[in-house]
Design goal:
single chain; 741 residues; alpha+beta; Cytochrome Bc1 Complex, Chain D, domain 2; 5-stranded mixed β-sheet; 4-stranded antiparallel β-sheet; binds calcium ion
Length: 741
């Protein structure tokens, strides 16, 4: 006790000098002999933050539902249902709901996080894994912790330099960094407690997901299965010390070596060939849910790497535990059960999507269930005690499987595995019918609400993969592949891109209502007991809808696309709603549906709020490059290959104006002139454009420039899309002949 008080005393003296912001009421330094005064420190002061965050212990996390005023963990509670019983804001007074304050964050690459709040002190993560503490009473930043992620890490990310959230436990804030560290920060001061590297050096592992806390351990997964030689795992670290407690591998390694845990011996029997030389995939990059009732941790496991089973397990097999939900003991990481949503995944159908725990009555019996709408298009209800399959139906258009049989196994459609070397259109696409954007389960209505995707994707067994190719996916990169629609007659045709917000009845296994959304990349959901459904969307609107029919009841123009998830909480008797707003992330990198992107902001609303709205600025349209080229078709074809295999992951498609990162045919001439310095020497590495010097040479950059000028001219002169594709297809085919290479 004595030590604790002294620590506070030291911090009270030093922190206002160090941080200045938001610590306007640090109080009088406490004497060690006056511990009673610590109990009522000035709100927002270091001692207040220390006191309220230290109180976030196992019991507080387990009892999050009895504490509706705070938002203590990623999904609000251990059920992760994003359901709030706060009712000060209701349908009757939405006309009084207004902006309380905004905070300008200045970042430009996407805010995906769900903030946490305890007694009006908010914690969240931003771009480049930076963590913020905010005083929600004043709308001021208290501290900011920058883990200094090396900017070249951007080359290892499929989906932007984003982060989805932090964890809070006993006075510490935990964040997983893009470059694979788990960092513990003192919640009161923003200073580093400890950090631990959770991934091997010089690999493609990255972290964008939120850590979870279970019984004094911090759980963290990783991502990277779109790139080479990645084998997924989840690690538990002691929250106090950062020491590793256990690690669970989601796919087996080389069977000639000892298996890290005994269940992997069984899992290895479902793999063929030399899968371990390619990693196998199975990264757990988002959903990891702790169940205190059963003391289990459910791990949502990702897709295979490479995507195509033919390339990683050529004789077939289910490839456990890809695309599975795996339950392990929280204290030891020992395997308990698994359920595989997509056996032998070959479509990037991850089961990393958010899982929600609920206690439902099914056929007259109470069941402890786990619900998930993974990418594969089926909504699953499982018994979370045993892993037993209860039910699943398609929640979106699906053409890879006819349904799920009574054993819980998909009934696959012939040809859906695209093993014939032609290009197939499959639904859902690799974006899934639903991706990581959190759903909400409303205990009152019994409905799940989901940000959905209505989209097909092209897949091909790419026979032209180059040995040095970093990409492990199956999206076609050759324009001359044959397109196969015949076996999948209802597939959405190219260009059909759609979002949908929908309500789903998990008991009846059916969609209850749905509303179309312009673009399929929209923020996560929150629902309340009094019938409100909150969501920010790609069109820059923050909406409150009626849970019963999806009708918009209230809307606020936040100017730019939203990929964060809203929260609600109480501060000093007032209900607040907060949302991070900044476009970016996977799709947001290269597309947008607003006329201009704005820097990141934290928006907060309350009844009677009347803060000024951020100013709307004129649209920005960058002109196409006007330089011309006399490059040969062969050079342009080679340049198109350079673009597709190196640049397209973040800069595709060309011409549309780009998203959070530039459209390469609309960069200015000065930038174009130094493209070799940017690509080969990392001239823009500080802003996140990685140095590709290890992968490309000067001649390839010249070819790339020829292609970009060809494309810019085609767009400028209004060449019909069909003709552009046909010409480019011929040039690419020319480049792929033995002479062309
Ligand atoms: Ca993936």
């Amino acid at each position: 006790m004595r030590t604790f008080i002294l620590t506070i005393t030291q911090l009270v003296v030093s922190v206002p000098l160090l941080f200045g912001l938001g610590c306007s009421d640090p109080g009088t330094p406490q004497q060690a002999s006056q511990p009673v005064q610590v109990e009522q420190p000035g709100k927002g002061s270091v001692e207040h933050i220390r006191q309220v965050t230290l109180a976030v212990d196992d019991e507080a996390l387990r009892n999050a539902d009895a504490n509706q005023g705070d938002w203590l963990t990623y999904g609000r509670n251990y059920k992760e249902d994003r359901y709030s019983e706060l009712d000060q804001i209701g349908k009757h007074n939405l006309n009084q709901l207004g902006l309380a304050w905004t905070i300008e964050l200045g970042s430009r690459r996407g805010l995906q996080a769900t903030p946490l709040v305890v007694d009006g002190i908010m914690f969240f993560s931003g771009t480049w894994s930076v963590v913020y503490a905010v005083d929600a009473r004043k709308g001021e930043i208290i501290w900011k912790y920058d883990p200094q992620v090396p900017r070249e890490t951007a080359a290892k990310l499929c989906c932007g330099v984003v982060n989805r959230g932090v964890a809070l436990y006993k006075g510490s804030v935990f964040v997983g960094t893009l470059d694979g560290r788990l960092v513990s920060i003192d919640a009161a001061t923003g200073s580093l407690n400890w950090e631990v590297k959770t991934v091997p050096d010089n690999t493609f592992y990255t972290i964008t997901g939120a850590p979870r806390v279970a019984n004094g351990k911090v759980l963290i997964g990783n991502g990277g299965a779109e790139l080479k030689n990645i084998r997924g795992y989840v690690t538990a670290y002691d929250a106090e010390t950062g020491e590793q407690t256990w690690r669970f591998y989601t796919v087996p390694g080389n069977p000639a070596e000892p298996f890290e845990h005994p269940d992997l011996e069984q899992a290895a029997k479902t793999w063929t060939g030399e899968w371990w030389t390619k990693g196998g995939g199975g990264t757990a990059w988002d959903s990891i849910v702790y169940d205190p009732e059963l003391n289990l941790v459910y791990i949502g496991v990702g897709n295979g790497s490479p995507w195509n089973r033919l390339e990683r397990s050529p004789e077939g097999g289910d490839n456990l535990y890809l695309s599975s939900i795996v339950a392990v003991k929280a204290d030891t990481g020992e395997y308990v059960w698994h359920y595989q949503t997509t056996p032998g995944d070959t479509w990037d159908y991850t089961a990393t999507q958010p899982m929600i725990l609920a206690d439902l009555e099914i056929e007259g019996k109470p069941r402890n269930v786990l619900m998930q709408a993974p990418k594969n298009g089926f909504f699953y209800v499982l018994d979370r005690v045993t892993g037993e399959f209860i039910s699943a139906e398609a929640y979106t258009y699906v053409n890879w499987a006819k349904g799920i049989d009574s054993n819980g196994r998909p009934i696959e459609v012939a040809g859906a595995r695209y093993e014939d070397g032609r290009m197939h259109w499959i639904s859902p696409s690799s974006h899934g019918g639903h991706n990581w954007f959190p759903m909400s389960y409303n205990r009152k209505t019994g409905m799940a609400y989901l940000p959905g995707v209505e989209k097909s994707g092209a897949y091909v067994h790419d026979i032209n993969k180059a040995p040095g190719d970093r990409y492990a996916g199956s999206s076609p990169r050759k324009l001359y592949y044959d397109v196969v629609y015949d076996q999948h007659p209802d597939a959405h045709k190219p260009g059909a891109v759609d979002g949908r917000l929908f309500a789903y009845d998990p008991l009846k296994q059916q969609v209850v209502w749905e509303v179309p959304q312009k673009f399929f990349y929209n923020g996560g959901l929150l629902s309340t007991a009094n019938g409100l459904l909150f969501q920010g969307d790609a069109e820059g609107k923050f909406s409150i809808r009626d849970v019963d029919d999806g009708r918009v009841l209230w809307q606020y123009d936040v100017l730019t696309g939203v990929i964060g998830s809203p929260i609600t909480y109480m501060v000093d008797g007032e209900q607040y709603v907060s949302l991070l707003v900044e476009w970016g992330g996977g799709q947001g990198q290269y597309r947008k549906v607003v006329d201009r992107l704005y820097t990141g902001k934290l928006y907060t609303f309350k009844l009677g709020g009347n803060a000024p709205a951020p100013e709307r600025l004129p649209p920005i349209e960058k002109p196409l490059l006007t330089l011309t080229t006399d490059a040969s078709p062969l050079e342009i074809g080679r340049g198109y290959n350079v673009y597709m295999y190196n640049c397209a992951g973040c800069h595709n498609p060309l011409g549309g104006g780009g998203g959070a990162i530039p459209d390469l045919v609309r960069i200015n001439e000065g930038m174009f002139a130094i493209l070799d310095k940017i690509v080969l020497e990392g001239a823009l590495a500080s802003v996140g454009m990685p140095n590709f010097g290890d992968w490309l040479n000067g001649a390839q950059v010249e070819d790339l420039k020829s292609f970009l000028l060809y494309a810019a001219e085609a767009f400028r002169t209004g060449m019909p899309a069909g003709e552009y594709r046909a010409q480019l297809s011929k040039m690419q085919e020319l480049a792929d002949t033995p002479q062309g290479k």
